[in-house]
Amino acid sequence: MPLAVENIEKSYLRGHFRKVPFDVLKGVSLEIQEGETVGLMGDSGSGKSTLARILAGLDRPTSGRILYEGSDIHRMKRSEFRSYRRSVQMVFQDPASALNPMKTIGRSLEDVARLAGVGSDGIEEAVKEMLAVGGLDPEVLRRYPDQISGGQIQRIALARVLFHRPSYLILDEPTSALDVSVQAQILQLLRTIQKETGMGCLFISHDEAVVRFISDRVVRLADGEISSDEPPGI
Amino acid sequence: MSRLLDIKNLSVSFVSGEETVRAVTDVSFDLCEDEVLTLVGETGCGKSIIAHAISGLLPPEALVSGEIRYKEKDLQSIPEEERVLLRGCEIGIVLQNPSRALNPLYTIGHQIRETILRHTEKSKEESHGMVAGALRRMGFSDPGIEMKRYPFESSGGMNQRFVIASSTILSPDLLIADEPTTGLDRSRIQDVITEFERIMEEEEMAIILITHDLAVARRLADRIGIMYAGEVVEMGDANRIFEEPYHPYTKGLFGSLPENGCVPIPGVSPPMSRIVSGCRFHPRCGKRTAVCERDHPQLGMIDDRYVRCHLCHSQ
Amino acid sequence: MNRAGLIGFAILSIFFLMAVAPWIFAPYDPYIRFTPYAEPGTDHILGTNDMGHDILSELIYSARASLFVGFVAAILATLLGVIIGIIAGYYRGWIEDLLMGVTDIFLMIPKIPMIIIIAAFLGSGIWVLILVFGAFSWTAIARIARSKVLQIRESGFVLSARCLGFSNRFIMAREIAPNLTHIVFPKFMLLAASAMITEASISFIGLGDPSMKSWGVMLSFAFTKGGLLNGMWWWYIPPGIAISVCVMAIALIGYSREKGADIGVRG
């Protein structure tokens, strides 16, 4: 079942003394099919991060609906919404704050396993699995985020969110802060994972070439509205 | 064309505790007037350090050896006051993190005007006009408003353009730009590129452009230097190198671009504290031989460029 | 920690040792009565007070009460402040408005007069002091914690934790709170110093517990029993110095981490 965005609007109140409403999203509709990668492009201020956050359940729209398996996520019961949350995961841009700086990598991975209900005898196995998904060396487990590279951090972030086997993955500029060759590694990893799991992806980026490489369809957002929705082209 | 900048055997290292980090090893190149040299490489390759070394902005713990000659003057041995005079007037510097380069207590207009008033005899009205012109060229449609802004009121991208305007406004002879387009939207990057192209056409300014954005390098560079692990591995005419890279790292770098299929280079960049033996790239090179693991290759001329590779020289 | 911080740590450790095991340092039990009003000499390095207690022993045994009040009150205030700050900063909305409003009200209440008033009803004693200090000193920490939380809550790892489905309690306690340590620690140390001085002040004006030995109580008796008038400096200068040195040591530790407390700074 696709993940559908129906006429989402989002406005904030801006200003210090007199609050003025500011429309970030003005009626956005799109659909993401399973197994499909939709690239989302737009300049800063176009609303793409806001849309991503709303899809991930981190923010509520001012109006409009998000439909998952046919139901409006904002009308779901708490348990249903929680299960929606699990099936739509998000990877963020800035590697510097993608992981808790006070926790070792090992701890960060264990927490995710424990959250999924893995008992203490299964934790080691779960962590190994996450390392394998991310293509990481076990020696990274003892390290803190400030001791590893940006590429490794994004791999860990990916491994963490994939443990819950989400149906959809939203990536908000996941490789924008990475070197070109590292970006290539991460994008290839993403492609492999997507082929294996059949996840639907929303890939947000400002880089034309990257979006063209990874997406089946490209949606452009400008000033809070969709300006085009078509295959990547040449 | 005379040589404006002459770098010979520049090495920069940092000592932290037990480890010595060799950020830059034995880099030599020169720069002529009106030439654009782009230093390209990934995180940790040392390109930014070179920019800081030329500007004289390295931290005091840095150990520097080699020569940096600007118009025959050794930049490292001149007194600080002279260096300060050079900066802004003859040498323009645009560094990363533009928001830090701007003083939060003064308006943009005031800060850019300061540069003019400090180094020249122009009047306030004249400088006002110059600032407005520069801002308009940076893509700001209403310079009057921008000049009254404070840095915290503008986005990083805007601040970046303010800083570029401010360092080029006095038409320096040498411009050092460290990642001037990082963090900007496509349209803003275009504005910056257009402005650099205008500068290149209208002024006789030598530019050292440091970037990891290969598209920008391709648009602007006359010559390009590819850096890896603190060394120059390939340097020569930009168009030629883009068309036909010789060094395996350069090939790998271009190959990993999304346009070329995102073919990754296996492995990771080496930590700068542990230098491998032989060629620094050999652990990741598919074509390595015993010689590559043993002997450190020198930078030598092949055809129209310099390449640091045993295999390239043996062909 | 820089060098000044290490010095402060060394000094404070000595005081802590005095608090925990005063018999190691003190020549006598402070309650034994010797000849009163003795001047400093070989038997009694700092002389004796009006009850004949050895002053040096008194001084050392007093470390316990002063440090206890100082640190327990600071722990209480810090816990309260951090909890309120995290809840306000994480949930935002009306919860934040309410908690910050309450914070502003508490900020206006002066601590020492409040302690005096409450002591008048509940009687004096160190627990009144600790509880009142804790109940009224959490505001600065709450403010700082909240402002830091506003920043942290937008980081990738917190947003990710929410998406992954970690409970709010887990996120606040295990993801956000540890990242506040760098900012909260200096404030905690300074609160401890402030609490110690408050205890000394309260005891000095006679609202402390007279049966307990603390530096403030020593100062109080030094004045009321005529120490100042009779020029018996060994009654009032030692406790004054003790308080000052202890507070200085705490301040040195509190300011010892010069590097900014940005998220991502672990050490």
UniProtKB/TrEMBL annotation, chain C:
Cite the Gene3D superfamilies for this sequence. Answer: MetI-like
| InterPro entries the record matches | BP-dependent_transpt_permease, MetI-like, MetI-like_sf
Membrane-crossing ranges are 6-26, 67-92, 112-138, 188-208, 233-255
Would you kindly state one Gene Ontology biological process term found in this protein's UniProt entry? transmembrane transport
Could you list this entry's UniProt keywords, alphabetically sorted: Cell membrane, Membrane, Transmembrane, Transmembrane helix, Transport
Localisation: Cell membrane
* A Gene Ontology term for the protein's cellular component: plasma membrane
Q: How does it sit in the membrane?
A: Multi-pass membrane protein
ABC transmembrane type-1 domain sequence ranges:
63-254
Q: Which Pfam families match?
A: BPD_transp_1
The text of the family note is:
Belongs to the binding-protein-dependent transport system permease family.
Instruction: Return the protein name.
Output: Peptide ABC transporter permease
The species this protein belongs to is: Methanocalculus chunghsingensis
